[in-house]
Amino acid sequence: MVESEQTLNPWMPAEQNPRIKIQTLEATISDTEGILPRQLNKLSDEKLGIGERAFSAAGAAFLSAVIVNPLDVVKTRLQAQAAGVSYSHPLSNSISRMTYFGPSMMFADLRCSPSCSRAGVHGTVSICPPDCFQYKGTLDVFYKIIRQEGFTRLWRGTNAGLALAVPTVGIYLPCYDILRNWFEELTMHNVPSMTPYVPIAAGSFARALACATCYPIELARTRMQAFKVTGSSVKPPGVWKTLLGVVSHVKTASNVQNSFQGYRILWTGMGAQLARDVPFSAICWSTLEPIRRKLLNIVGDDANAASVLGANFSAGFGAGSLAAAATCPLDVAKTRRQIERDPIRALKMTTRQTLLEVWRDGGMKGLFTGVGPRVARAGPSVGIVVSFYEVVKHVLHQRH
Fold it and tell me: pTM of the predicted model, to two decimals?
């Protein structure tokens, strides 16, 4: 009798059937488990203004630029050397010795490695043969910069990096947030099948805007990191002096009277930068978003600052490393175009020509020059930027 009471009546309407109600409710809850965190995150995002987003992003950029700058210097040196920049000893020939020796001569940048058995002695200074100053790998660059130039030179270009990172990321991440939310709402109502591709589109648009806005500072940073300044008494040029040197050199070399033509050199290589950064952002965000959402789903409604930090750093580290490795050939092309010292050639170079030159000179190995330090830099950098940005947003949202 009890069993017959519990058996469902096949003619009973669905809305009157309690078991169907329960099953439907359970199915609805299970189907929305992956959507709720996204909607809650979106709602919390929408409560934050552009100023709070920019503040979060600027803090993340500052922290990242200081921590990973040495790896950026190492990567740039390896790529510049492959492009033909000479790092040989400035006193390795007689003309340079005649120019350098004098009462104010400082040898701090010219010291030979104590393990080098081939050094010749000039006065009281041991001088290595030129090949001792060639970089043979990531760790070798670290060692030789510290030994020959000093530990602080690993942070060469940090001021440019900060001047670049704060406004760039301050534009990039807030724009990505706003575009992602807008594109998601647009696609969910009109073209639901396109929603998974929203991070690719939002990341590409945001990165292109940030890159075009601050490109001259990026040019200055690459040149500051690539070219070695000899003599510890000589102060390396800063961002402004580096940019003035680029402009004055092109005007002198090409006898250009038109100011626009002279200042156009400050944007040479921007095509290569966009060709690198737009795919980087597309790969990075399309990888990061699914990983981050899965990790945050595990935490659920109990998310705190520590869990937000861990989920975002893990997702950012993996996505940044993958994107950096995939776009390394374009990074090599960007570096070559930015360090080109012949202004006439610099204005005529294209990214395609540069890639063909790299392939002809070094093959696949040349295209992936510096991939080690690039990946080692990008993984932590993206992880730090994204996690710091999201944690600050989380804290600001909790305060609201």
Answer: 0.72
